[in-house]
Specification:
Layout lengths: L2 H17 L11 E2 L8 E4 L4 H4 L3 H15 L3 E7 L2 E6 L3 H11 L12 E5 L11 H19 L3 E8 L4 H13 L5 H4 L3 H25 L4 H7 L1 H14 L3 H25 L5 E4 H4 L4 H10 L2 E3 L5 E4 L7 E5 L7 H16 L3 E7 L3 H13 L8 E6 L2 E2 L15 H18 L8 H21 L7 E2 L13 H20 L17 H11 L1 H11 L2 H21 L8 H24 L9
Parallel strand pairs: 5-6, 5-11, 6-7, 11-12, 13-14
Antiparallel strand pairs: 1-2, 2-4, 3-4, 8-9, 9-10
The structure holds one RNA strand of 77 nucleotides.
RNA sequence: GGUCCUGUAGCUCAACUGGAUAGAGCAACUGCCUUCUAAGCAGUAGGUUUCAGGUUCGAGUCCUGACAGGAUCACCA
């Protein structure tokens, strides 16, 4: 049973019967009534005054009367200006609850037969992950889970940037100053080891530039002529020529980095179904350049470089192949797009990449559409804003980054500190306590990064640590743990809340019906989050739900209730709330504890 | 300079896609633990939604123009 649909159908009939006018269902919409007014749903009549040829008040009253007489769930109404507030038969919420409670597929919409790939993370292998990557990884993982819940068949992909000049920089520095250091000998995680040499490269490179400038070169020339840079460029050429020594070092350093990344991903709680490596894909796309030339979509300039003209689409001319026949970034991206499609026959392909690449993806997608790719219209760039520090932008070369491993550990430590301070670890052994700190610390961090609309840039202030109260992950986790405690007690005293008997219930409290209303919104929110690729929708919903539950919890002490039927109903209501929170949090990649 | 994104309480964010008196959290203040977990609940205070026009019954939301911040416009990735 869908209450909203039955009301909307009623409104449609009202228009036919009273005004002899057809209104289509999808034109009509209901809004939840604001708290300060009586009612559950509100229908706004202003847009229909031309049809009704009447005042707002009269129109609202006429429709209200019709609905009251003809729609069973509506028990009454009131009119404020042009707003028709519909009051529902309170017991209808009990029916809604019964249906939700017996639904086995909580938080899972039916399969839609569509395949989608979510590409995220996509790290460079020359340095460890930082705060910006955390936002990317949490977003990508969460969006993938949300799309699964929407009925898609989802492939999580990671396109690892394991080649290129930046990796060569780390390698050159390592050759010069590494002294054969390894993760084992240094005690550094492999990705941090590689990052260390990336920073050393930059430092030494700058010294060389200064030296050259002192000898009279211009800044610009010095940057191009510094021996270290030339060395890195030479190394890249050797790598492309498959030089054995270079490739061996490259494999060695990358394998260290992968070991490090694996640990970081595990701590983050993210995973992938498919890895692509740029060392395999960087030559792809040249055949597409040929195809584009044949089709007349691309054109060649005198020096042999190939371009696409996107001025009709509001963009510029864009290079797709260099004059010397080598690839640029977009060349391999075209090739990879085809590769992904051929591998998985995707209906949709989501790229989780920062908003500094908005233009690039705009170009890429327009090209693929011009080329007539069947998947062209399913391409989507999930563009998210940068995470800024109070000092401004993070710069990995200058070491002003918030390291992902460090930050996660700090959050876990902070969670441990809070928990001990509150004296909430009675009855936990050490292993359980550590698990709880991990759950809470990462929950706080993930929620913090996901509750904000992805496309907005956000500020992270390391000095003011992430909160554990209010609109936070731990608040929602706490609400879940509280409910679990109630369920344990209910089981102890033998309350059958799995098959409750509702026969004694003749009315509902306001906090009960409000809670049921919210529980009933879950699937709608999942749908919305999927359409907008926005975990923030789920985060906001879960906060509202937890808040509403805590109101109910304070309002109606469950075990003080004498009537067994009502008591069992309230435990069942709590159980459904816990299940909804748990499922919703899992869509954000956040675990919830049984106790805390 | 062109293009794109953002601008809401001191701070961090919402606002059901054009609806009612713009809502939460943090910070501040006031109550509530003789027990379903106070990481909670209830309340007080805090606003010319950057500014100026426009569209209409109605604008934080749409349009135009300023202003501020950011990104991007490489034969870099």
């Amino acid at each position: 049973m869908n209450i909203q649909e039955s009301i909307i159908t009623g409104i449609q009939l009202a228009f036919q019967n009273i005004y002899n006018h057809d209104v289509s269902m999808d034109q009509l919409s209901l809004a939840p009534t604001r708290r300060e007014f009586e009612g559950t749903y509100t229908f706004v009549v202003f847009p229909y005054l031309k049809v009704t040829q009447s005042t707002p008040e009269a129109t609202a009253n006429q429709i209200g009367e019709y609905l009251k007489a003809n729609v069973a769930v509506i028990s009454g109404f009131n009119v404020v200006k042009g707003f028709l507030n519909l009051e529902l038969n309170q017991l209808i919420w009990l029916e809604v609850f019964k249906e939700l409670y017996t639904n086995k597929a909580l938080g899972q919409l039916p399969a839609n037969g569509q395949k989608v790939m979510v590409e995220y993370s996509s790290p460079n292998t020359n340095k460890p992950l930082h705060l910006g990557h955390l936002r990317n990884n949490f977003l990508g993982f969460s969006v993938a889970e949300i799309l699964k819940a929407n009925g898609y068949e989802v492939t999580k992909a990671n396109l690892v940037n394991d080649r290129g000049i930046h990796i060569c920089k780390s390698m050159v520095a390592y050759q010069h100053w590494g002294n054969g250091e390894t993760p084992d000998s240094s005690g550094l995680k492999g990705d941090h080891l590689a990052g260390k040499y990336y920073v050393i490269f930059d430092k030494e490179y700058k010294k060389e530039i200064e030296g050259l400038v002192a000898l009279g070169q211009s800044q610009e020339d010095a940057k191009k002529n510094a021996p270290l840079l030339l060395e890195a460029q030479e190394m890249l050429r050797k790598w492309e020529a498959n030089d054995e020594e270079v490739v061996t070092l490259w494999k060695q350093m990358n394998s260290w980095v992968y070991e490090g990344f694996a640990k970081t991903y595990e701590k983050m709680g993210v995973d992938f179904d498919k890895f692509y490596y740029e060392s395999d894909t960087y030559l792809l796309g040249k055949d597409i350049v040929e195809e584009g030339l044949e089709k007349g979509i691309f054109f060649k300039k005198e020096n042999g470089s190939v371009w696409v003209d996107l001025t009709e689409e509001g963009l510029d001319e864009k290079l797709v192949l260099r004059g010397d026949g080598t690839s640029v970034y977009i060349t391999q991206d075209m090739g990879t797009a085809d590769l992904k499609y051929n591998d998985f026959k995707l209906d949709k392909s989501v790229y989780v990449v920062g908003n500094e690449q908005d233009y690039h993806f705009d170009v890429l997608f327009k090209i693929m559409k011009k080329l007539g790719r069947p998947y062209g219209k399913g391409l989507y760039h999930l563009s998210y804003g940068m995470v800024d520090l109070p000092s401004g932008k993070m710069k990995s070369r200058e070491g002003t980054v918030v390291d992902a491993d460090d930050l996660m550990q700090e959050m876990v430590d902070t969670a441990a500190h809070h928990t001990k301070e509150l004296g909430k670890i009675d009855g936990f052994n050490e292993e359980q306590a550590d698990e709880l700190y991990e759950t809470l610390g990462l929950g706080a961090l993930k929620y913090f990064l996901l509750k904000v609309d992805p496309k907005k840039r956000m500020l992270f202030n390391p000095e003011e640590s992430i909160e554990f109260q209010g609109n936070t992950g731990p608040f929602i986790q706490y609400s879940h743990a509280r409910i679990k405690s109630i369920m344990r007690k209910a089981e102890q005293i033998g309350v059958d809340y799995e098959n409750p008997d509702f026969s004694d219930i003749t009315s509902l409290e306001e906090s009960e019906s409000s809670l049921i209303f919210l529980l009933g919104e879950f699937h709608k929110k999942i749908k919305m989050a999927g359409e907008e690729y926005s975990p923030a929708v789920i985060a906001q919903y879960l906060f509202d739900l937890a808040k509403e539950y805590n109101r109910f919890y304070a309002d109606l002490p469950i075990f003080h209730e004498d009537n067994h039927s009502i008591l069992a109903f309230r435990v069942a209501l709590s159980a459904l709330t816990a299940a909804t929170i748990k499922k919703g949090m899992s869509l954000l990649g956040i675990n919830v504890p049984e106790r805390m």
